[in-house]
Amino acid sequence: MAVVDSLVHSASLRLSSSSSPSSKSSLFAGSPLALSPAFVSVKQTCPNRRLVIVSKRISGLEEAMRIRRERELQSTKRLRRRPPLRRGRVSPRLPVPDHIPKPPYFGSPLLPELASEHQVHDSDSIAHMRAACELAARVLDYAGTLVKPSVTTDEIDKAVHQMIIEAGAYPSPLGYGGFPKSVCTSVNECMCHGIPDSRQLQDGDIINIDVTVYLNGYHGDTSRTFLCGNVSDALKNLVQVTEECMERGIAVCKDGASFKKIGKRISDHAEKYGYGVVERFVGHGVGTIFHSQPIIYHHRNEEPGTMVEGQTFTIEPILSLGSIECRTWPDNWTTLTADGSPAAQFEHTILITRTGAEILTQC
To answer: Composition bias, kind Basic residues: at what positions (predicted)?
Structure first.
């Protein structure tokens, strides 16, 4: 999910949302990160220095990108005439048959701590990971076919839930830290961890659907941002570039590669288009445990660590047309951009190989 994807991580991990120290959204869809002083942006600490850097970079292609960005922001202002996202009615939690194996956190309202172990697999467990991830990919493909104006996110949740349990799997988000639904549906300005409800999708919306399944003791985790009806060019471009950022992050992965290369490659591409990379939510190790080390930063960073053959983790960047800061609703899950600007996210679970990375969550 966009869970540990966005784990807001400073020198120490902090399982909380931006609006409340007790918020549960820290581990979902990229867990939120609480940044230490070392991570405070130049904009906050050295405004004059930042201006000098920007002035040096604006030339040629970058000037053209700046103009394009201004046009997109103007388009975004028009988009925001639409009423801001509001909570709809949340229906009761759906049941899971007794015969389906449940994850360890089932039945507990507590948010599990991020596991410190890196999940490295042998050939048998890789086969299980492939099966779980392939199912997650098929479910996500199916969910995408349901994205149409007037369809509610609750209807998408029910359809996803049914497909997962019919496959003999458990919908991993259900009950995770008290999350009430089987899938995350994040619409427009919702960065991640949106709770399905009675709101109908509108023509021109974008929606990220985040699917994780627990099959035979292994989690497969993936998400994609879909277009609903007639979407503006500005939002189409945001969605396309976000997917490209994920692909570029995956492209640098292989045995022995530094984790920090992922964030650099994603940031380089996002900045060409003037988009902000959300720092609060991060990728995470995944396997028999839903969320574990390593933490995968999608922005530039100097965190140590290298990838190991047989390791599985998610890459799931969130890009915004405006602010990368966020606010969280009182449900402690739904996280929106602070300024109401649209955001998009893509996610894959990958397996590190000797020469590259195998994308497990694709059909």
So the answer is: 77-90
DSSP 275: P
Q: Which structural domain range is residue 150 located in?
A: 2-85+94-359
Residue 346 has pLDDT above 60, yes or no: yes
Q: What digits encode the pLDDT tens for the residues 313-335?
A: 999 999 999 999 999 999 999 99
Tokens of 259: 């984790």
- As a whole number of angstroms, the distance between CA 345 and CA 349 comes to 14
Alpha helices in the chain (DSSP H): 42-45, 47-57, 61-79, 123-145, 153-166, 233-251, 260-272
Q: Are strands 283-285 and 292-296 parallel, antiparallel or unpaired?
A: antiparallel
pTM: 0.82
Amino acid present at 363: C
Binding residue positions for a divalent metal cation? 210, 221, 284, 316, 347
Which CATH number does the domain housing residue 147 bear?
3.90.230.10
User: 């292989």: which residue's tokens?
Assistant: 254
How many whole angstroms separate alpha carbon 286 and alpha carbon 4? 9
- DSSP-derived 3-state class of residue 186: strand
Cα(143)–Cα(225) distance, integer angstroms: 11
* Binding-site annotation: residue ranges for substrate: 193, 291
* Residue recorded with tokens 């349901």: 146
Annotated binding site: 193, 210, 221, 284, 291, 316, 347
Long-range own/partner contacts, residues 237-241 (CB < 8 A, 24 or more apart): 237/72, 237/273, 238/72, 238/206, 238/275, 238/319, 238/321, 238/342, 238/343, 238/344, 239/206, 239/344, 241/269, 241/270, 241/273, 241/275, 241/319
| Structure token pair of residue 228 | 């609903």
Question: In Å, how far from its chain's centre is CA 233?
Answer: 22
Instruction: Give residues with Cβ within 8 angstroms of 258, minimum separation 6.
Output: 305, 306, 307
**Number of domains forming the structure of the chain:** 1
